């Protein structure tokens, strides 16, 4: 009797394990992020649809094996003191709560997309900038086999480099208290910014043959060669693996990612990070930081001079 029980118990444990995938969500951003999770229409639901993930923290979730859906991170969230509604400056899902409860990200947001246990028993995954970009995201498959099991993502901070006509900035009362007024917080897709069917791959441009990359999608693709830059960018942007667990890192440090990725072979011709872009970007970053420092020094000097003059007059 006991032995049968133990046998059945072990069997159910074993099958439960082979039916599930673990997802570890890691926040390497300097600020808190609020991951959002949206399950596909025919997908089994998840234990959570959104939660708070402080800087430096991680949370592991067990996903049903045939889950499909999207994961993203919301930034600069707060609760409106009068309406008591929760909302976020980027990636908001409009639920008014931390849980998204079946609603998706309002663009722009960097999306990690999954179809677990799809055709041929493979997991299909990608990182998409088709709905724009709000922060760097890295997806790493662990312990899988079959497929290429390559890491994918967008490791460069594109908010700084974003073309002006696509850029979303923090406004007064909307994130400006945290990141500063006018700081770029997201980068729209050309489809969202202009609504042109050529950019959206809609109407007369709704097939792979008629919808082509644009100057804007090329900007995303050059910075993040493995991420989806427009709707038909499948060939270089979809990755597969079987029976893997996944790590999703928000704001992965681009320089140390090789250590994390280990000796994993890099499938496809396209690199995970465009080193040229990263170099240019870090120079831009340093230059603007230096400019910021210079301005704050000038202001400090101005304040000292002003105080001295003021004191003299006072006397
Ligand atoms: C903040 O952004 C939301 C959504 O974009 C908007 O409805 C709201 O009016 C903004 N609040 C302020 C104070 O600008
Ligand atoms: C990397 O970025 C540079 C500069 O934007 C671009 O010329 C180059 O084609 C990019 N490389 C890839 C692999 O996209």
Would you give an account of this structure?
It is a single chain. Residues 4-17 and 289-315 have low confidence and may be disordered. The chain has helices spanning 2-18, 158-161, 176-179, 190-194, 197-200, 215-223, 257-261, 275-314, and strands at residues 20-27, 34-39, 58-64, 68-79, 86-90, 111-115, 123-128, 137-142, 152-154, 167-169, 184-187, 239-241, 245-250. 38% of the residues are buried. The protein contains eight helices and 13 strands. 28% of the residues lie in helices and 23% in strands. The termini are far apart. The chain is globular and about 50 Å long. A hairpin with a 6-residue loop joins β4 (68-79) and β5. It has a single domain (15-273), classed as Thaumatin. Residues 222, 225, 270-271, 274, 276-277 line the site of one 2-acetamido-2-deoxy-beta-D-glucopyranose.
């Amino acid at each position: 009797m006991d032995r049968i029980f133990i046998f059945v118990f072990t069997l159910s444990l074993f099958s439960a394990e082979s039916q599930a995938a673990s997802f570890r969500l890691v926040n390497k951003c300097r600020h808190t992020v609020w991951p959002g999770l949206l399950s596909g229409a025919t997908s089994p639901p998840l234990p959570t649809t959104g939660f708070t993930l402080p800087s430096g923290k991680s949370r592991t979730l067990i996903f049903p094996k045939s889950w499909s859906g999207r994961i993203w991170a919301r930034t600069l969230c707060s609760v409106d003191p009068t309406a008591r509604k929760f909302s976020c400056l980027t990636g908001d899902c409009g639920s008014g709560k931390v849980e998204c409860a079946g609603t998706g990200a309002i663009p722009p947001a960097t999306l990690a997309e999954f179809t677990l246990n799809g055709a041929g028993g493979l997991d299909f995954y990608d990182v998409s900038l088709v709905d724009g970009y709000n922060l760097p995201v890295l997806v790493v498959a662990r312990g899988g086999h079959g497929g290429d099991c390559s890491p994918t993502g967008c490791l460069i901070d594109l908010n700084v480099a974003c073309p002006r006509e696509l850029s979303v900035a923090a406004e007064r009362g909307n994130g400006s208290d945290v990141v500063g007024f006018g700081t770029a917080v997201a980068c729209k897709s050309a489809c969202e910014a202009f609504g042109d069917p050529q950019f959206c791959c809609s109407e007369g441009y709704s097939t792979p043959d008629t919808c082509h990359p644009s100057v804007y999608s090329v900007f995303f693709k050059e910075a993040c060669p493995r991420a989806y830059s427009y709707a038909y960018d499948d060939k270089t942007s979809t990755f597969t693996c079987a029976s893997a667990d996944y790590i999703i890192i928000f704001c992965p440090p681009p320089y140390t990612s090789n250590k994390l990725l280990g000796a994993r072979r890099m499938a496809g011709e396209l690199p995970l990070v465009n080193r040229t872009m990263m170099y240019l970007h870090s120079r831009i970053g340093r230059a603007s930081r230096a400019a910021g420092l210079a301005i704050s020094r000038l202001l400090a000097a101005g304040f000292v001079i002003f105080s001295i003059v003021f004191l003299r007059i006072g006397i």
